[in-house]
Amino acid sequence: TESNLNSSTVTGQIGRPGTAAAAAAGSSPAAGSRPATAPPANTTLPGDPDDPNQYPFWNVRRYRPLFNVDTKDVVWRVGSSFLGPLKPDFMAVTMASPDLYGPFWVATTLIFVTAVAGNYADFIAFKSEQKAAAAGGDAGSIHERQWYTDYAKMSFSALLFYDYVFVLGLALYFALRWFKSEIKLSNVWCIYGYSLTIFIPMAFVCIVPIGWVRWLVVGLATGMSGLFIVSNLKQTIYDAAPARALMLLGIIAGIHAALGLLLRLYFFHYRGAPEAAASG
Asked: How confident is the model at residue 149 (pLDDT cuts 50, 70, 90)?
């Protein structure tokens, strides 16, 4: 009897060759293979400590991916922003990994650079006015005046650049979402923030007390940065609202032109200087 049971057991196992193998395969994965339920290497599961979406919106750890860039990334993005319309693929390259590190520091740097350069250029114009008055025999009236640092330039530049990047970017985002666009707010902020990079060297050049040079430099910087914004947002806008794309692009370009004009007339227009009176 024991021999028959052993024979039956062996026969049953031999008659179903796939049963044991299937059970073994289902219970333990092959060496070096990834289980079918494992997530991709570059994703996080809900509840994972590395998942930023588990944190509430007021927790800074939720926005950690927006600052997860290295020097190589930032240098490439800054350099690309200088190329204006020659770099229309900036949006495509940064679509999956926009950052706010670069836009925040570009805007912050521009606030200080513009205010300092504007005040220093104003000081140069004031000294030129003193020399011209002394040469004309009217030194008394000019020496009664004193030059002072205009700290209002600092606060105004902070209001201007932070609002331009983040408030105007937010308004454009809501407009695009109204037209059912899938663009993310971080993508819009990334484009607008990096577009201002070219204004940093422009501010230093505008210290030169020559009116037509200032107009030329501000015009070139405004045109290049404006074309950078338009060329990168054009496809997204046409996909979302083809019937109103030209109107939206025109509004974007017009607001950007107004930014350049404001920079020229407020920060780099020196009232009272002989050169300013002659050439603006």
From this structure: confident
- Is this model's pTM higher than 0.85 or not? no
At 212, which amino acid appears?
W
Distance, in Å, from the CA atom of 275 to the CA atom of 57, rounded to the nearest integer, reads: 52
Mean pLDDT of 23-43: 41
What's the pLDDT tens digit per position in 113-133?
999 999 998 888 888 777 777
